[in-house]
Design goal:
The complex is a heterotrimer of chains A (276), B (355) and C (260). Chain A has 276 residues and is mostly helical. In chain A, 76% of the residues lie in helices and 0% in strands. Chain A has one domain: MetI-like fold (Orthogonal Bundle). The longest helix of chain A has 34 residues. Chain B has 355 residues and is an alpha/beta fold. Chain B has 16 helices and eleven strands. In chain B, β1, α2 and β2 form a beta-alpha-beta unit. The N and C termini of chain B lie far apart (59 Å). Chain C is 80% helix and 0% strand. Chain C is built from eleven helices and no strands. The longest helix of chain C has 32 residues. The chains are: A mainly alpha (276), B alpha/beta (355), C mainly alpha (260). The interface between A and C is large, with 101 and 98 residues.
Chain lengths: 276, 355, 260
């Protein structure tokens, strides 16, 4: 966009300085903890720890639950955003505020409110009992954790997706319809590819926090399901074992690499690179 | 475009208003301060006001929700607090890591006079010479059960293993508190360091897991009050709150023994306001102040003058609020078992939770 | 039929999003301090809320830290995205990955490592360090919101503006920024939200006596959440809803005027 390389460097400087101090230094500090033991001797033991039974099980469970939540968020968000982009454009700000608003309540209080809704004597079961229907067991199950995650992270999917869908030129869609494409065809061939970058951003913002959350699993899972976030928290806080905590956390860095790969995959700017 | 300006203006006014208030609040700084780091809600705000009025010392209060989240902030020296209120084993850990300084009891006349001797004696298990800590709150751990829904009298921890209460049991979610129970059933010490005994305790907890409804921390109060579970492992201070809210519940300390916990005032090694810190601790030991804190908090107090000053008869006569000495005599208190043992406990607990 | 289906879907999502808020509101009128235990209707928590200076101090800190950290993070993210657009796919992905590190790390790792960093830098923990820490984890969220839009920008408009004699800066402000507005707005909102809700990072980077609403709430856990917090949540909720309605109406009126 800006032709000269000087501008590019100039604009990159603040971030590089920023990242150098506030991302790399803390990162190095954690890598140091992750690669040493109490006697400050280098050891890879903290990293391989993640693949030992209790930890690996927690890691797999976390990945599974985070994946399921991300997919549910994506499936819920697409129709929602498509409906919303149909509406008049001057409503867009109001709509995004309405979606973000639930998040302005404290998430701990909201998660506790979900306890009140899902519990054995909770609101859902009270309503079911009123209609003489059998109770459902939701609290302290993986389902409850997924509900909690979807609730907490859905807006992170909706916002970027909504933004990228609303940027699609209506004329392209009309053109596709005029050329005889069905609604589904238009969606698969036109809308979906154009909204992929937004969806990728949303997936990152849902998957990553869902992977390391521990409040939701503690409150809605009844502490009976251990996620990797709980383990890291417990190692740091209860065990006061920063080496193990940092080591486990470093293993999660793999997901940064996966994330980079996904970003490259969804990056639809190839024509530009070719231009150069 | 107009609307954008309107919006920007709104935000600007809002921020200015907020920061304006923020700045004006910071102006009234004085050197005469004491930095206190205590459990959340452990002090009645009224008491702090009285202290500031009487002594002219400004209290800067920070609060934490567990010993373990407090510790790194103090150990790393993130903030130089003067007075802290850790629990027993944490006091010992802080002493061991050279984070505390000995108290000067000449400046603590109220502590010498009104804090029960029993509690100082019990404190010796974590503060061997009674040099570093003044007890502030204490209690036991027991079973809270719904009298209307549990037929038998649960005076043994083994009731928590009974199939018929499947999905009706709440357990504490922390390594020490959870392992304490099977250790007591086996007749072992809750400060056990023998790994075979600990592994047996772990296996008992794993066996118990299918009938446990949830592992909880602070949520236990809400869950019991609303009748989610028939019984739960709770601290005696919470027990009083639950009983006042829902009279169906009763609290019992099982016969195998329990944890006699004590939260104590200590002064940090790098405290900058040592004199003020002593004044603060002594103020908290004054009977008229202790009774205000007791009413606010509801946790048992080691202050021997409080029971007579308590105005509410129901509470004054409550054996949960003011237990007989026999409830706690001969009971153990948690000790700091060293870093390696802490991690071992922690690891066993992880193994239970991941099953 | 399809219109009705759409309506039902929207209603279901809104019910899902707002049900817990309904519970919070109900609690703010509950006589009992404990969750899920209804003992009667009362306004007393609202009374005591207005006498509670501590909560308002915390609210002030939360809102001002939220606005400043989100604002600064938005500026940093915007500048970075401008530069990143010029990079090839791979370096861009690497930079984005680096930016995402603070949110991928478990909060506690970010919190403790930032605490150590600030102490190493000789900073006194307080309001400023909380603000810095919040900017750290806010930048990636804003970038994730702005970047996709930036990539799909049609640069011919920008070039046209240059051809018509605009300076690059003018062209950027007049042509690019308006196009990016929804993304910037969404990023700012998300960043504000993250900041206002963060507990752990704040816990480790805060100084004595500086509290935000989340640290206040966590401290209350041991003896039970003070229902004043529910009352405050209810008030904030209505405040924002009214603001949104007024804002939309004002925009509509302006838009109507512009037509004439």
């Amino acid at each position: 966009m800006f032709k000269s390389a000087g501008v590019k460097t100039l604009f990159m400087t603040p971030f590089c300085l920023w990242a150098g101090i506030f991302i790399f230094v803390p990162l190095l500090c954690m890598i140091w903890y992750g690669l040493t033991n109490d006697d400050e001797i280098f050891t890879p033991a903290n990293l391989t720890l993640a693949f030992e039974p209790p930890y690996f099980k927690a890691l797999l469970l976390s990945i599974g639950l985070a994946l399921v939540s991300t997919i549910i968020c994506l499936l819920l968000a697409y129709p929602l955003c498509l409906i919303l982009t149909d509406k008049a454009r001057d409503l867009s700000t109001a709509v995004s505020l309405l979606f973000i608003l639930p998040l302005w309540m404290n998430s701990l209080l909201l998660t506790m409110a979900w306890q009140t809704i899902l519990e054995k004597n909770g609101i859902i079961n009270q309503v079911l009992r009123y209609f003489n229907l059998p109770d459902v067991a939701l609290i302290n199950t993986p389902t409850a954790i997924i509900i909690g995650m979807v609730y907490n992270f859905l807006p992170y999917m909706v916002l970027p997706l909504y933004v990228s869908l609303s940027k699609i030129d209506k004329r392209i869609i009309e053109a596709a319809r005029d050329l005889g494409a069905s609604y589904m065809q238009t969606f698969w061939k036109v809308i979906l590819p154009l909204s992929l970058p937004g969806a990728a951003g949303g997936m990152t913002m849902v998957f990553i926090p869902a992977l390391t959350t521990f409040v939701i699993s503690a409150l809605l899972g009844g502490g009976k399901l251990l996620l990797i976030g709980n383990v890291i928290e417990q190692e740091f806080i209860a065990g006061y074992n920063w080496h193990w905590g940092a080591g486990l956390s470093m293993v999660l860095m793999i997901f940064i690499l996966i994330n980079m790969a996904v970003t490259i995959f969804f990056d639809n700017s190839h024509e530009e690179v070719e231009e150069k | 475009m107009e609307s954008k300006k309107f919006f920007a203006l709104c935000i600007l006014i809002f921020t200015l208003a907020l920061t304006g208030c923020g700045l004006s609040a910071e102006e009234e700084k004085s050197d005469n301060v004491v930095y206190v780091y205590s459990w959340g809600d452990y002090l009645d705000p009224e008491v702090l006001e009285k202290f500031e009025e009487e002594t002219g010392i400004r209290v800067i209060l920070d609060e934490y929700d567990t010993n373990e989240t407090m510790y790194p902030r103090v150990a790393e020296g993130a903030v130089h607090y003067d007075v802290i209120c850790p629990s027993d084993y944490m006091v010992q850990k802080m002493i061991a890591n050279n984070l505390l300084q000995p108290l000067n009891f000449d400046f603590l006349p109220n502590a010498k006079e009104y804090i029960g001797e029993d509690f100082f004696r019990q404190s010796q298990s974590f503060d061997s010479e009674n040099e570093y800590s003044v007890p502030y709150c204490w209690g036991t751990v027991g079973i809270m059960y719904d009298k209307t829904r549990v037929e038998e009298f649960p005076n043994s921890w083994t009731i928590l293993w009974e199939e018929k209460y499947k999905d009706e049991i709440l357990m504490q979610d922390s390594a020490r508190d959870a392992l304490m129970i099977p250790l007591k059933i086996m007749g072992k010490s809750m400060n056990e360091t023998d790994k075979t005994a600990l592994k047996l305790a772990r296996d008992m907890l794993i066996k118990q897991k299918p009938i446990v409804q949830a592992y909880v921390v602070d949520e236990v109060k809400d869950k019991l009050i609303s009748g989610e579970a028939k019984m739960g492992v709770v601290f005696s201070g919470e027990a009083l709150m639950i009983m006042l809210e829902n009279p169906n519940y009763d609290f019992v300390v099982p016969r195998e023994g329990t944890n006699f916990w004590i939260d104590s005032w200590v002064i940090t090694r790098d405290a900058e306001n040592v004199e003020n810190a002593h004044k603060f601790i002594d103020f908290m030991c004054r009977p008229d102040i202790a009774v205000i804190n007791f009413d606010y908090l509801g946790y048992s107090t080691p202050n021997i003058a409080v029971q007579d000053l308590e105005e509410d008869e129901e509470i004054r006569e409550s054996p949960v609020a003011f237990p007989n000495p026999e409830v706690y005599s001969g009971q153990e208190t948690y000790k700091y078992l060293g870093n390696d043992m802490d991690r071992y406990y922690n690891n066993l607990w992880l193994q239970v939770k991941v099953e | 039929m399809i219109v009705r289906l759409k309506f039902v879907y929207l209603a279901a999502i809104f019910l899902f999003l707002y049900a817990p808020i309904g519970v919070l509101m109900a609690q703010s009128f509950n006589e009992s301090r404990y969750r899920g235990h209804w003992t009667g209707f009362t306004f007393k928590w609202y009374d005591s809320l207005f006498e509670n200076e501590q909560i308002f101090d915390a609210l002030q800190n939360t809102v001002s830290i939220g606005i400043f950290s989100a604002g600064i993070a938005t500026i940093i993210a915007l500048i970075t995205c401008v530069a990143l657009r010029e990079f090839g796919k791979k370096p861009r992905a690497i930079f984005m990955g680096v930016a995402n590190i603070p949110i991928l790390n478990a909060d506690i790792v970010t919190g403790i490592s930032l605490m150590l960093l600030f102490m190493g830098m000789g900073l006194k923990l307080g309001y400023g360090t909380i603000l810095l820490a919040h900017i750290v984890f806010n930048v990636p969220y804003v970038m994730l919101c702005i970047m996709p839009q930036f990539m799909s920008l049609d640069k011919s408009f920008y070039e046209a503006a240059l051809d018509l004699g605009a300076s690059p800066f003018q062209a950027f402000v007049k042509v690019i920024l308006p196009e990016l507005r929804p993304g910037i707005f969404a990023g700012f909102l998300l960043a504000f939200t993250m900041s206002a809700d963060d507990f752990i990072i704040t816990h480790f980077t805060k100084g004595a006596g500086v509290d935000t609403l989340p640290t206040e709430i966590y401290a209350e856990l041991k003896l039970g959440i003070h229902p004043e917090m529910y009352a405050l949540s209810t008030l904030v909720f209505f405040f924002v809803v009214i603001f949104v309605i007024l804002f939309t109406m004002a925009r509509k009126r302006l838009a109507d005027k512009e037509v004439f």
